[in-house]
Amino acid sequence: MTAALILASASPRRRELLDQIGIRYRVCPVDIDETPRPDEAPLAYVQRVAAEKSAAAVLRFGTDIPVLAADTSVVLDGEIMGKPQDQAHALAMLRRLSGTTHQVYTAVSLRGLRHGEAVSISAVTFRPLAEAELLAYWASGEPRDKAGAYAIQGQGGVFVAALNGSFSGVVGLPIFETAQLLAAQGIKVF
Q1: Where are the transmembrane segments (predicted)?
Q2: Which of 31, 71, 77, 145 is catalytic?
Q3: pTM of this prediction?
Q4: C-alpha distances in angstroms, 33 versus 45, 118, 162, 177?
Q5: Which of these, 22, 48, 49, 142, has the minimum number of CB atoms within 10 Å of its CB?
Q6: Cα 158 to Cα 167: distance, rounded to the nearest angstrom
Q7: How many CB atoms lie within 10 A of CB 38?
Q8: pLDDT by residue (tens digit) across 37-72?
């Protein structure tokens, strides 16, 4: 079975979401500098990074089949909260998210016949979190490589009191928007 596209990501969550909608793909991650630019707005940031990932994959792997890339950021009060550097950083992020509503921006970039882009913005409300919960969550290992130091699809889901938007977008690849981009490139879902 040949791949319908190249997935320019090593994320197991993005693979699971593509599997969920029956898309065949080949995993070909790229490594780019994901440092936010000075005064770069969160929306511009995720759009730029997703587009740069797909462009880097086209340069590296060619254009025989479409290339899909995405970028996800947790944003609180206009600040991009990246992946935690260590335990102290993760706990500080989770303390800031505790009892608040933050946004999760996920940009998708698909390069094939043309370049298609989409963005999902979701609002996630955390219940107040106890310090013991934060320490236990860190000990689980889950927050170590996650934007905002949590995974809504994992144990971190117990912190979420409300979600307004796309669950799959918060996970890392908004299914609705991705399916629309794929259809525009002639890639059928199912």
Answers
A1: none
A2: 71
A3: 0.94
A4: 12, 21, 33, 25
A5: 22
A6: 14
A7: 5
A8: 999 999 999 999 999 999 999 999 877 899 999 999
